[in-house]
Design a protein that fits this description.
Helices cover about 35% and strands about 25% of the residues. It has about 325 residues and is of the alpha/beta class. Helix 4 (about 95-100) links the parallel strand 4 (about 80) and strand 5 (about 105-110). The chain has helices at about 20-30, 35-40, 55-70, 95-100, 115-130, 205-210, 220-240, 260-270, 280-285, 290-300; strands at about 5-15, 20, 45, 80, 105-110, 135-145, 165-170, 175-185, 195, 215-220, 250-255, 310-315, 320-325. Strands 1-7-6-4-5 form a five-stranded mixed sheet, with helices on both faces. A four-stranded mixed sheet has the order 8-13-12-11, with helices on both faces. Strands 2-3 form a two-stranded antiparallel ribbon. The two termini are about 25 Å apart. It binds oxa(dethia)-CoA.
Length: about 325
């Protein structure tokens, strides 16, 4: 029987023009560059302006990925957009992206899995390639999370940033792409990262708005514990399942939420520093966009090259996690 593999054939990113530094935040709220740097490693983040939206960032990143892959929107069979901050709750932003790209024969859907979304979407896309159903799939991770945080709440607003990145998976007949994957969820922690109002349980009212329930809330300490415990375990599992050792990994890209979490997790599995990609200092936590932005930069900086073995681990609201090992 004919076998297909999902080759990472193109990648691209899009970031809002405006950059907000820690020093600028410290002028507006009770925080400091020292606190943010020491606790998170973040120095600055990109923040959307009025004319920049989830759909426009996603489309811009997608265009770059398509150009690198040498295909047009019209060649796409499927578009998966991982996001928790779409332009609208309805329609799915994936259809806006599809329209902008002229991807007339593509199916399109959104995956809402918080910061885990892009890795979950990549794993899902790979399944459609492996079954032989589709040849060209666009996977986007995008967030405009700064419009969901309370800019007066220092517990959350200093942590996040906006951005988008996309990859194209192309069906090929030589062995490459995802070798192993896992997806997990522990719903007992659903309240730890929560958007209290805006869904159907608590639709926005004057009361919810004046209580600030439209803003994202997070129990940072609980998420920190969960993340540091989960990353190493997930990495071990996917490497074992791929039949390789941790030494065989050329580059490890974890979700970029906090440099301390990444350093702690890397140390717990003895992953040497030079194999761990960190760019949270420049972007903050861009949620579902963090892993694909890092993939794009790793290629552009020459830290990732064709044939390398890459490990991805993401974690986020739900609580959820997803990981995979792939040849790029
Ligand atoms: O992608 C989704 C996943 N999210 C994450 O991975 C986030 C995981 N959690 C974290 O990264 C960390 O828990 C945080 C960075 C959010 C917080 O760091 P922490 O070391 O856990 O600090 P904390 O929440 O225990 O707060 C310590 C102190 C508190 O003051 P008191 O109560 O000790 O007087 C906070 O009020 O730091 C205070 N604080 C701040 N101070 C200055 C909290 N935020 C700030 C701030 N500036 N921005």
């Amino acid at each position: 029987m004919q076998k297909f593999y999902g080759k990472l054939a193109g990648y691209g990113k899009a970031l809002p023009r405006k950059v907000v530094t820690n020093e600028e935040l410290a002028q507006r709220i009770d925080t400091s560059d020292e606190w943010i740097t020491e606790r998170t490693g973040i120095k600055q983040r990109h923040v959307v302006s009025e004319d920049e939206q989830c759909s426009t960032l996603a489309t811009q990143a997608a265009r770059e990925a398509l150009a690198k892959a040498g295909i047009d929107g019209a060649d796409l069979d499927l578009i998966i957009v991982a996001t928790s901050s779409p332009d609208y709750l309805t329609p799915p932003v994936s259809s806006q992206v599809q329209h902008e790209l002229g991807a007339t024969k593509a199916g399109a859907f959104v995956m809402v899995v918080g910061c885990t979304g892009f890795v979950s979407a990549l794993i899902t896309a790979d399944q459609f390639i492996k079954t032989g159903a589709y040849k060209n799939i666009l996977v986007v991770g995008v967030e405009v999370i700064t419009r969901m945080v309370n800019w007066e709440d220092r517990n959350t607003c200093v942590l996040f940033g906006d951005g988008a990145a996309a990859v194209v998976l192309k069906a090929v007949e030589f062995e490459t792409g995802i070798k192993s994957h896992l997806m997990g969820s522990d719903g007992s922690g659903w309240e730890h990262i929560l958007h209290p109002s805006g869904g159907t349980k608590n639709p926005p009212t004057h009361e919810t708005l004046s209580a600030g329930e439209q803003y994202l809330t997070m129990n940072g300490r609980e998420v920190f514990k969960f993340a540091t415990g989960t990353i190493g375990k997930a990495l071990h599992q996917v490497t074992t399942d791929a039949g390789i050792g941790l030494d065989d990994i050329d580059l490890f890209i974890p979700h970029q939420a906090n440099a301390r979490i990444i350093e702690y997790a890397a140390k717990s599995v003895n992953m040497p520093e030079h194999k761990v990609f960190i760019n949270v200092n420049r972007y903050g936590n861009t949620s579902a966009a963090s892993v694909p932005i890092a993939i794009t930069e790793a290629f552009d900086q020459g830290r990732l090259k064709e044939g390398d073995t890459l490990a991805l681990v993401a974690f986020g609201s739900g609580l959820t996690w997803a990981a995979c090992v792939l040849t790029v």
